[in-house]
Amino acid sequence: MRLLNTTTLEIKEFIEGQQEPYAILSHRWGYDEVVFQDLKRYYEAASQGLPTADSVTTAEGFLKIQNCCKQALEDGFRAELSEAINSMFRWYRNSAVCYVFMCDVPETSDKFADVGSSFYESKWFTRGWTLQELLAPSQLRFFNERWELLGQMTSRSDLCRIISSITRIPINFLTKRTPLSQACVAKKMSWASRRKTTREEDIAYCLLGIFDISMPLLYGEGAKAFTRLQEYIIQQTYDNSILAWGTLDPDFDPYSWRAAHTCDALAHTPADFEDCHDFEYLRHANPETPEFKTTNLGLQISLPVHMHQDGFFPNVGYVNRYYVGLDCFSWRFPGFFVGIGLQAGVDNESNFVRLSPHLTVKDRPRKRPWPRTIERPLRFRSFTIVKPPTTPMKWRTSPDVVFNVPDDFTWKIQYCHPDAKIERNGDQATDNSLEIWMNVRGIQTQREANSRFF
């Protein structure tokens, strides 16, 4: 990694092991930018007194560099050494401050907050590479086209709330109070759903740091880059919300004959996740996480599958349709799992294809669950009262459950499966609201044994 001397504009190399603070610039790439080779020619021409140096210094990109160095000098940053960094995301994350230069924002700090202002419409919020430049740095300072300070990103600033409204990124992620790892895959993909890149592959490559992924860059592979990114993500996570792409439609019926068009299991672009901005991942108490991987046949994952009765669909014929609930929910429908529709493969009942680029929400299987195994009844013999979880939980099966608790113990259940029979010392419970949550330890729970491909 190379740094510019803020006084002489000389380029120096990083030395591994030496880490000093540095400033970094976030900007949109223009048509008259100065690259490393231009600076080398500038130094050579300037040292010899040749006039070719003027062609570099008059470029708009060179003026941008000069202004950035001037601002860094005012903030106390000088030419220091730092260790080499392998990824751009780490460059921004390790910087002491990031200057966001918004070349299309003429307003001053007292006008940019208006809806419809040039700040709201700035192309900086539409570019793929600027997403990591927004999320990675610990400190961001925004400047208009005249290098006048618009504001600084802090949790209490109006600027932070405005940017959250523009980008649909929650404030706690913008201010680094919550690590990016706490956001589900679908939510993070939605942050890039409205952004564009000049090269098709870059819409995938600009997300590597956000997902903490390292993979080779193969320019020329086109849309395959995003598919490859998703495969790398699957190798490192159990978060199946990566399958929750499409339009969330609570009225969509995966068993309807209208859901006759099949589609790929993985999304084609981040734009497919645009409707997932309020999704959350349900982290279950069961430490046993189902296997989730890519194979030569497709994706292999263990999920609860619910089957529609065999039937004839117009223009389709006799087919088996299924509903799969994923481990995520939308705050628009907090009591329900987000799900997708599947259809049995032609060649093998263990293979599935996805029905339609639509998501739906279900609180229970439409017909009968298939297949499902419970090793033994769930009987809770001990309990510990804990703080209610921050995300809603829901039973995924409908066995009888008995709580052995004191007679004077008051309790209620939230998001319970409608078919479940919940009892306390023989008295059946009917209330489905919440007062107390119980954390049960050392019990045998259901195992999902229906690994299938789709």
Automatic annotation (TrEMBL):
InterPro entries for the chain: DUF8212
Boundaries of every DUF8212 domain copy: 224-284
Protein name: DUF8212 domain-containing protein
Species the sequence originates in: Xylaria grammica
